[in-house]
Design brief:
about 130 residues; mainly alpha
Amino acid sequence: MNKTIGERIRKHREEKGYSQENLAEKLHISRSAYQRIENGETNTWVNHLSSLCEELGISADELLTTDENFVQVNNHNESSNDNGSGVIQNQTNNYNISEKLIEQYEERIKELKDQIEELKEENKLLRSKK
């Protein structure tokens, strides 16, 4: 079954035992603003993607990717407007999501490179003690 981002956020929040108020407080937003995120009334979760993932203990991929391997930003992946602005909004949201994912992956790559360098130095020290 394909779930919206809000539904997936709700599922993970409940699994962690957080109330909407608890998670809203951790994100520094009002409970009503948070409630709109879960109800799919807004896509402002994009602004809180990193914090949401951190608080819920999940990766951005886990939150954003559906069983069909695409990002769905709202219930219909479109706007109720007939003027095409929904398409532009979804493209903008997907762009923002992509940028945040790239930023997170680049940060993780840097961390891994630093760990590799530390391990190389440690290995070098161990070899020199032999």
